[in-house]
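Below is a filled-in request sheet from our internal design queue. Each sheet records the structural input a requester submitted and the sequence that came back. We keep these sheets so that new team members can see what a complete request looks like end to end.

REQUESTER: design group, bay 2
PRIORITY: normal
MODE: inverse folding
CHAIN LENGTH: 239
BACKBONE (tokenized):
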């Protein structure tokens, strides 16, 4: 069997966001998070709810297993029973996310997606992030516009929680006294110095940083032969 790729470590890191989640709705955005959510459902989170993005609940292979009307979807969102994994054009040390614009919002240099549902997601249910290209342009000192709400802007939000940020370099969380970003694990082949060089703020570095766990043989089989036989994961992470 060929060596585990960086993309496959990223799939595992994303899947772990939903470990033992129970009956909640997984809302992954992006190829690798989607493979990760389906892998979690196949293995250690059998009660996880997956959606086709429209109005149906589906199994990891796409078989319809239920109906999810919009009213019920909103009930899950506002009741903290969904875990979203969104993308970010910018993210800062407290987990504030920007997907709206680059530069002053009154006259931006670049117009992006817009705020979309990011404020509702982050204030009402756990929200993680997937960033396929870790760089100082994305991991910034301060976002140009707050779309997804970080810890410094949501001290009293009932369901606000950012379990993890996964990038092509490692996994990050906010398990610090001031809820600033911390390096939780490195993907094999990545160094702490690479993370520091690619991050525009001083991320907290523990004395000992573990490596992201490798997939088991069974998980690797599922990723390669069942969930992503066409290797689409390399579109987001080539290493």
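RETURNED SEQUENCE:
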């Amino acid at each position: 069997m060929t060596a585990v790729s960086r993309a496959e470590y990223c799939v595992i890191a994303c899947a772990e966001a939903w470990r033992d989640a129970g009956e909640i709705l997984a809302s992954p955005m992006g190829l690798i998070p989607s493979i990760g959510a389906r892998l979690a459902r196949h293995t250690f989170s059998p009660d996880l709810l997956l959606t086709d993005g429209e109005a149906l609940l589906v199994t990891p292979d796409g078989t319809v297993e239920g109906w999810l009307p919009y009213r019920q979807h909103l009930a899950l969102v506002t009741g903290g029973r969904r875990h979203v994994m969104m993308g970010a054009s910018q993210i800062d040390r407290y987990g504030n996310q920007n997907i709206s614009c680059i530069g002053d919002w009154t006259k931006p240099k670049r117009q992006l997606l817009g705020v979309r549902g990011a404020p509702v997601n982050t204030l009402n249910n756990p929200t993680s992030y997937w960033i396929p290209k870790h760089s100082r342009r994305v991991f910034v000192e301060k976002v140009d516009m707050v779309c997804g709400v970080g810890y410094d802007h949501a001290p009293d939000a009932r369901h606000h929680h950012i379990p993890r940020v996964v990038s092509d370099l490692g996994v990050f969380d906010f398990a610090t006294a001031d809820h600033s970003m911390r390096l939780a694990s490195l993907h094999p082949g990545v160094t702490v110095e690479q993370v520091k060089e690619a991050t525009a703020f001083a991320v907290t570095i523990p004395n000992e940083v573990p490596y992201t766990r490798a997939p088991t043989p069974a998980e690797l089989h599922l990723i390669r032969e069942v969930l992503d036989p066409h290797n689409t994961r390399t579109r987001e992470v080539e290493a």
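SHEET NOTES:
- DSSP finds six helices and 13 strands in the chain.
- Residues 6-235 form a domain with the Glutaconate Coenzyme A-transferase fold (CATH 3.40.1080.10).
FILED BY: M.R.
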